[in-house]
């Protein structure tokens, strides 16, 4: 079964925002863009893995943080997939975010 999440965010142009998603790179899976961003509205500033605060368990998952910069007012979307980079057909989860950017 594939897990899918949809959400709407309201953000301000010029003010970066972060999407934080559960992730565990020891499985080979990572969050990546399903479709290119609309460069008129958003840029991806960073995509980094944040390990768990307590690392007592081997293979314990953490979070992946994707930081975006909204460029101008409008509406766009961010489509993400949680896949193994070498096996694009084996995606476990999807995240779709509608972004409303105000000035």
Provide an overview of this structure.
This protein is mostly beta strands and 103 residues long. It has one domain: Immunoglobulin-like. Helix content is 0%, strand content 57%. It is globular and about 45 Å long.
Main beta sheet: strand number and arrangement? 4 strands, mixed
Give the CATH level 1 class: Mainly Beta
Strand content: over 45%
Query: How would you classify the helix and strand content by structural class?
Result: mainly beta
How many domain units? 1
Per CATH, the architecture is: Sandwich
Q: What is the count of helical runs?
A: 0
* Beta strands, count: 7
Distance between the termini: 40 Å
As a percent range, the share of helical residues equals: under 10%
| Average pLDDT rating | 89
What Rg, in angstroms, do the CA atoms define? 15 Å
Strand order of the largest sheet: 1-7-6-3
Low-pLDDT parts are none
- Reported by name, the CATH topology is Immunoglobulin-like
From N to C, what is the helix and strand string? EEEEEEE
Q: Overall 3D geometry?
A: globular
Blueprint (SSEs and pairs):
Blueprint: E1 3-12, E2 17-23, E3 30-33, E4 42-50, E5 62-70, E6 74-83, E7 93-102
Parallel strand pairs: 1-7
Antiparallel strand pairs: 2-5, 3-6, 4-5, 6-7
Protein name: Inhibitor of cysteine peptidase
Domain Proteinase inhibitor I42 chagasin: 13-98
Keywords: Protease inhibitor, Thiol protease inhibitor
Feature tags:
single chain, 103 residues, mainly beta, Immunoglobulin-like, four-stranded mixed beta sheet, three-stranded antiparallel beta sheet, globular, thiol protease inhibitor
């Amino acid at each position: 079964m594939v897990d899918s999440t949809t959400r709407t965010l309201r953000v301000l142009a010029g003010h970066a925002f972060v999407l934080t998603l559960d992730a565990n790179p020891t499985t080979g899976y990572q969050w990546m863009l399903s479709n290119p961003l609309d460069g008129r509205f958003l840029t991806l500033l960073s995509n980094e893995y944040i390990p768990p605060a307590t690392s007592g368990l081997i293979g314990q998952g953490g979070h992946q943080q994707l930081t975006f910069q909204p460029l101008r007012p409008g509406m766009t979307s961010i489509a993400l997939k949680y896949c193994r980079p070498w096996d694009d057909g084996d995606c476990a989860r999807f995240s779709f975010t509608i972004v409303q950017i105000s000035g």
